[in-house]
């Protein structure tokens, strides 16, 4: 019934087992809310009186649907019913093959939903009607039930001979006048116009950046067919899947579905076959024309151009005039983890703060940058992309291409020394340095005299040693540098300031 021409009992011939049905949650729509008693209707009135609990897909223009209906006038008199003929209507909607009111009334419907439709004359059979059946200018009332299977549903279908192979049968396989019994499992359904469907399962708070095309992403996933059959999982390999997104390295549906995600987000991506592996499928686990469902967990992502992200967590209450800079010797506490919260390292495990000289390549580049410009007592959160951390190969305990999250607290800061210096004077050095250093005035300075003299200068605030190193070792290295002939003592000819040595080297090069 409800073909665009006059109604009758001749239905379009049905394809055998038309199981491409439509499922999705319809958003309730009521069109033209006036009643016939209150004046003419402008549009179809829709009353949804049974809506299924799950409905992942709505009827759209061009969909092939099957439904039952009862058609009555305003006084309740029935003019047609598919139930009376025990035959479903099976037809493509939205393309003019039904009266306009029915085409509109089926839009957005769910499988197994029931609706009551009121169709005004201009959307039905108009001022002409149908001779002997529907009078002119008749308002039509329909009770409609959209039928179909859900993915994962099992049915036993018994088909009588006249709807199967009839009196001829089929070769030697199906005898004449055979009733056929099918046990059917509906694996999936789709429409060639379907796009990727996204469902956020868990969204972490504080998402400040979403993935875009060109980002390199690490994620875990479970991949299944629409009936729940698992075909692959990164969890089973205990290794994330790592790839650039939006650049064609993965199937188009996944390429689309991963964009816009946050770190730590869990989302479900439903991909129709034309955006997955198409009609042929792949391997022995993904059949042809399969709809794929991926439950993904985004571990992290970055762009090769990303800098270190720095967020100040707290600052000391007192004024801070001196902040860290390259060359400074610092002590700091830190906690290091992956972006999903997996703990990697912590200075608190070693009973004391970490020590480093900034700009001396003693720590990864991103951490070095993130520790600069800090006040003593300040706390920061640093997000370090892999190209400023341990790169594609990772390190012991750190996966390849991992984005690292640091929480750091600066404990102390000391001005560093210029490159190549072990000791610097705060003022000009003594005019007669060797005479001052030669404590017993015997014309030579042994290690004991040298060490005593340097320590006295440090204690008196006249100079300082390179920070972050054992003072005895530093002083020993200084002595070895000055003992040119390595005879265990320094003479006046051997003693030279490093600044003088640097000048002599420049003169020689010129």
UniProtKB/TrEMBL annotation:
**GO terms of molecular function:** calcium ion binding; peptidyl-prolyl cis-trans isomerase activity
Reactions this protein catalyses: [protein]-peptidylproline (omega=180) = [protein]-peptidylproline (omega=0)
Annotated signal sequence is 1-32
Q: Outline the extent of the EF-hand domain.
A: 425-460, 470-505
According to its UniProt record, the EC number is 5.2.1.8
Q: Write one Pfam family the protein is assigned to.
A: EF-hand_5
- Cellular component terms per the entry's GO annotation: endoplasmic reticulum
Cite the record's Basic and acidic residues compositional bias ranges: 484-510
- Domain named PPIase FKBP-type is located at 62-150, 146-190, 214-302, 327-414
Say which domain of life the source belongs to: Eukaryota
Is this entry keyworded Flavoprotein?
no
Q: What is this protein called?
A: peptidylprolyl isomerase
Tell me the organism. Answer: Carlito syrichta (Philippine tarsier)
* Gene name, Swiss-Prot/TrEMBL: FKBP10
């Amino acid at each position: 019934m409800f073909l665009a021409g006059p109604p009758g009992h001749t239905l379009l011939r049905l394809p055998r087992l038309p199981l491409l049905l439509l499922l999705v949650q319809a958003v309730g729509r009521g069109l033209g809310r006036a009643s016939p008693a209150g004046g003419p209707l402008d549009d179809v009135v829709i009353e949804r009186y049974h809506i299924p609990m799950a409905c992942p897909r709505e009827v759209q223009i061009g969909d092939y649907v099957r439904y039952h209906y009862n058609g009555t006038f305003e006084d309740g008199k029935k003019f047609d019913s598919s139930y009376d003929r025990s035959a479903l209507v099976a037809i493509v909607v939205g393309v003019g093959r039904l009266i306009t009111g029915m085409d509109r009334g089926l839009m957005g419907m769910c499988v197994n939903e029931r609706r009551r439709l009121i169709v005004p004359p201009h959307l039905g059979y108009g001022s002409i009607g149908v001779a002997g059946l529907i009078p002119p200018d008749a308002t039509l009332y329909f009770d409609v039930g959209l039928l179909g299977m859900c993915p994962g549903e099992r049915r036993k279908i018994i088909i009588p001979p006249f709807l199967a192979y009839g009196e001829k049968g089929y070769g030697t396989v199906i005898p004449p006048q055979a009733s056929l019994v099918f046990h059917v499992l509906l694996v999936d359904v789709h429409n060639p116009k379907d796009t990727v469907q996204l469902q956020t399962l868990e969204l972490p708070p504080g998402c400040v950046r979403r993935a875009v095309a060109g980002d390199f992403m690490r994620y875990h996933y479970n991949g299944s067919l629409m009936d729940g059959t698992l075909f692959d999982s990164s969890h089973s390999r205990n290794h994330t899947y790592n790839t650039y997104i939006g650049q064609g390295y993965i199937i188009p549906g996944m390429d689309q579905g991963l964009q816009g995600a946050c770190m730590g987000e869990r989302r479900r991506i439903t991909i129709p076959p034309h955006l997955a592996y198409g009609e042929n499928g792949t391997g022995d686990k993904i059949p042809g024309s399969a709809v794929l469902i991926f439950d993904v967990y985004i571990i992290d992502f970055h762009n090769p151009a990303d800098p270190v992200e720095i967020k100040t967590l707290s600052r000391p209450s007192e004024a801070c005039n001196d902040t860290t800079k390259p060359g400074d010797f610092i002590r700091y506490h830190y906690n290091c983890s992956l972006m999903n919260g997996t703990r990697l390292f912590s200075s608190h495990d070693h009973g004391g703060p970490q020590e480093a000289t900034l700009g001396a390549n003693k720590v990864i580049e991103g951490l070095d940058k993130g520790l600069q410009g800090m006040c003593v007592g300040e706390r920061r959160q640093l997000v370090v992309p892999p190209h400023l951390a341990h790169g594609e190969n990772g390190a012991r305990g750190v996966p390849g291409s991992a984005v690292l999250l640091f929480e750091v607290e600066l404990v102390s800061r000391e001005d560093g020394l210029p490159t190549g210096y072990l000791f610097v004077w705060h003022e000009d050095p003594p005019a007669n340095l060797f005479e001052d250093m030669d404590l017993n005035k015997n014309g030579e300075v042994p290690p004991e005299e040298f060490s005593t003299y340097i320590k006295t200068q440090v204690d008196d605030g006249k100079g300082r040693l390179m920070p972050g190193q054992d003072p005895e070792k530093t002083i020993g290295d200084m002595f070895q540098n000055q003992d040119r002939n390595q005879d265990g003592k320094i003479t006046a000819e051997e003693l030279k300031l490093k600044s003088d040595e640097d000048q002599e080297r420049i003169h020689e090069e010129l």
